[in-house]
Design brief:
single chain, 55% helix, 15% strand, 296 residues, alpha+beta, Jelly Rolls, Arc Repressor Mutant, subunit A, 5-stranded antiparallel beta sheet, 3-stranded antiparallel beta sheet, 11 helices
């Protein structure tokens, strides 16, 4: 089932980067929001649509007590791909696969209104009680297909070339984020970074906090945790200690406490949970292949 929220009007009190394994369509309606995705910063305008593959670290930076009205759809590509394949429309997901994150900005208000209507319809379907979950899933996937078609049409109009004006402060913050992404596994100082990107060290912390809403160390730690989670799941034979050290953590006790605080469970429990999920999703495929082999 898709995860859909329509015109959320709260201002979330979280200051952390996050990532997920679902594609996201994020529509900004009203308020003030600067959105950081990986090493890019977008100053959002009403009507903007962000398309994200979910894997890049991302976080909205909003103003406390101000409006932050948005809608979003989270979906797994494998849930919609069979329908798209049946109508030879797999290309509708290319922007997620190859751009990874993309700001869609258009003056076509009729298409934006239609997309918003479709998102609202998706949200309302979840609330219906007189149909089965399977029937809801069918209808939601069909409507999601319509959303993707509208987005694809806007992409064609924009020729995948949204000019993104950037202030000097935003540009500097992006340079800082890029440096961190390249060096988070290492032990470096603000002075090291300042020398590398040719900025004053007393300016670096201030401009990054102003642009993103959190500190350089918080971003460093978010990058490290993201890589730890990836390696815990994909490098089963590596010890947790090896992975922690590879990702820039020097103290295992500190690493374990910090990981549990951020993720909610221990590194060992996280690894087991992800591996169990992978095996569970793989089992039906293996079972089906065994049936085919027996038939042959």
């Amino acid at each position: 089932m898709l995860e859909v929220q329509y015109r959320l009007n709260d201002n979330p009190d979280y200051t952390y980067f996050h990532s997920h394994d679902a594609y996201e369509i994020f529509m900004f309606h009203k308020g003030a929001c600067r959105y950081l995705i990986n090493n890019h910063i977008y100053d959002l305008q009403p009507g903007d649509i962000l398309l994200m593959d979910g894997l890049a670290l991302h976080k909205p930076n909003t103003i406390k007590d101000s409006e932050y009205i948005r809608s979003h759809i989270h979906f797994k590509p494998e849930d919609i791909e069979p329908i798209l394949s049946s109508i030879k429309a797999n290309g509708l997901l290319d922007v997620f696969k190859y751009q990874h994150h993309y700001l869609l900005r258009t003056n076509n208000t009729s298409k934006l209104q239609y997309i918003e209507e479709l998102i609202k319809k998706l949200y309302q379907i979840r609330l219906v009680s007189n149909v089965t979950e399977l029937e809801k899933a069918w209808e939601m996937k069909l409507i999601l297909g319509q959303v993707l078609i509208q987005i694809n049409q806007i992409l064609k109009d924009s020729h995948l070339d949204i000019s993104r004006s950037s202030t000097s402060k935003t540009s500097h913050a992006e340079k800082i984020a890029t440096y961190i992404q390249h060096h988070y596994r290492e032990q470096f100082t603000i002075a090291d970074m300042a020398k590398s990107i040719n900025l004053d060290k007393s300016y670096i912390s201030k401009v990054f906090k102003e642009a993103t809403g959190f500190t350089i160390m918080e971003y460093v730690m978010a990058c490290r945790i993201k890589q730890v989670k990836y390696l815990l799941e994909t490098k089963e034979k590596k010890s947790i200690q090896q992975i922690a050290f590879e990702c820039g953590f020097c103290n295992m006790s500190h690493f374990s406490r910090y990981f549990k605080k951020q993720v909610g469970i221990t590194p060992r429990a996280y690894r087991q949970k992800r591996l169990d999920l992978y095996r569970k999703t793989r089992t039906p495929k293996l079972f089906n292949s065994e049936i085919k082999e027996n038939k042959i």
